[in-house]
Design goal:
single chain, alpha/beta, Outer membrane efflux proteins (OEP), 4-stranded antiparallel β-sheet, 3-stranded parallel β-sheet, 7 strands, 11% strand, coiled coil, MdtP/NodT-like, efflux transmembrane transporter activity
Length: 428
């Protein structure tokens, strides 16, 4: 099987789709940090979401533009009659009996409406930035938890594969003994049943691995035929980072750093500016007019100027003003709720992390090694017939349960650590 390690060249191949074809699946062996680098660079959803910022900036450009002037040419007669008055020709001998009017209009915004709209759209750009950061925050914790789950599954597979290999080795020896009648067939069948249990466990773990492979390869935009393998480093977070955490500081940090909280503040700011814009709409805009009339007025060549504006007798934009004012109140309520939600989430995440940390610290560092040594001892004694099959299989089950508990404690510690970083909106 071809093994490809994380390099800049590999990333480029993934993006261009020009990686060489292989007859077997390509194994991508990376650390958590390297996997996240690929994810941040290649994730298609992130690239798509980032375009929303460009769209918001485009709205600022649009708001800065003045409306186009309007040109109108009309009243051109294509024929003449006996009563047509002779005029100087327009071009050559053509146009002696032709009339034409030309009008030019330019809309002028009043009450600083254009400036108010630009200010409003600029806040929209800030909101788009915060929405992108919030989307990145959500997607990043999803990605990291999938990495943790894949590490957990791969480590669990190693444990069961090791036990399956040991059982199969015993089965080979016991098969000959059973045929010779040196051991009872029931013992052989019991050992065979244990093998089947391990095979079933490994089958379920492989299905879980396949599901995680699909999710992570999609998030990292890797080739479908690749097989992702995450090194075990960073499976347990650095506990020194949470040793002296101050809960009040965490809650304050969440209000300062969480993009969804900052977006709720910007939503209120946006609605305040929209309210000012709607107030300005009470003042009618002015349209400046200029016209030219050839042969249709008291002068053969008439030039006139003028203006037009709506008379605010019936509508002074009352409905939109009231609606914008209500939006301000709604955004204030939403901002307050978002602040409360953020602080409550910080408290829960912190307390969950403390509980997981205590569980992990209650497991002695040497306990896992002691388990492995005891398992080897039981295997030797069972082979030498110093231990009964019942005692051996009971210990194997206890061994697997305890190894799973240790793995679970590491996984939960990592997940709660990531959850705490997620709810405060920054890396610890």
């Amino acid at each position: 099987m071809k093994r490809i390690f994380f390099t800049a060249i590999f990333t480029g191949f993934c993006l261009s789709g020009k990686a060489q074809n292989t007859t077997a699946r390509d194994t991508v062996s990376v650390s958590r940090a390297e996997a996240e680098t690929i994810f941040l660079k290649n994730n298609l959803r992130l690239l798509s979401e980032k375009l929303n910022i460009d769209q918001a900036e485009a709205q600022v450009i649009q708001a800065k533009l003045w409306p186009n002037p309007r040109l109108e040419v009309g009243e051109i007669n294509l024929w003449s009659n006996a009563k047509s008055e002779q005029l100087p020709p327009i071009s050559g001998n053509w146009g002696k009996t032709s009339e034409v009017t030309v009008g030019l209009e330019q809309l002028i915004y009043t009450a600083r409406k254009r400036k108010k709209q630009i200010e409003m759209e600029k806040v929209g750009v800030e909101i788009a930035h915060e929405y992108f950061q919030d989307f990145l925050r959500i997607l990043k914790v999803e990605f990291r938890n999938n990495l943790t789950q894949l590490q957990y599954t791969q480590e669990k597979q190693k444990i069961y594969k090791k036990q399956l290999a040991s059982i199969q080795k015993l089965l080979t020896a016991y098969s000959n003994q059973a045929k010779q009648g040196n051991i009872s067939k029931s013992e052989f069948i019991r050992l065979k049943a244990s093998e089947l249990e391990f095979v079933k466990q490994l089958s379920d773990l492989q299905k879980e691995n396949n599901q995680l492979q699909k999710e992570l390869k999609t998030l990292m935009n890797l080739a479908p035929q690749s097989y992702l393998k995450i090194s075990i480093d960073k499976f347990v977070p650095d506990l020194d980072k949470v040793a002296n955490i101050n809960l009040a500081e965490l809650a304050s940090s969440a209000l300062e750093n969480r993009p969804d909280v900052k977006a709720s503040v910007l939503e209120e700011k946006y609605n305040n500016r929209k309210y000012k814009y709607e107030l300005a709409q009470r003042t009618p805009d002015v349209t400046l007019l200029a016209s030219y009339d050839r042969g249709g007025n008291i002068m053969n060549d008439f030039v006139g100027v003028g203006f037009a504006l709506d008379l605010p007798f019936f509508s002074r934009n009352q409905g939109n003003i009231k609606s914008a004012k209500i939006e301000i109140q709604k955004s204030q309520y939403m901002k307050e709720e978002k602040n409360n939600q953020a602080q409550n989430e910080v408290i829960q995440a912190y307390e969950d992390l403390v509980v997981s940390k205590k569980l992990y610290e209650n497991i002695e560092a040497s306990y896992e090694k002691d388990l492995d040594m005891l398992l080897e001892s039981h295997q030797r004694n069972f082979t030498l017939r110093n231990t009964s099959m019942l005692e051996y299989l009971d210990f194997v089950n206890a061994y697997l349960e305890n190894k799973t508990i240790i793995l679970d404690s590491k996984k939960e510690l990592n997940e709660h650590f990531e959850e705490l970083q997620f709810v405060i909106g920054k890396e610890l």
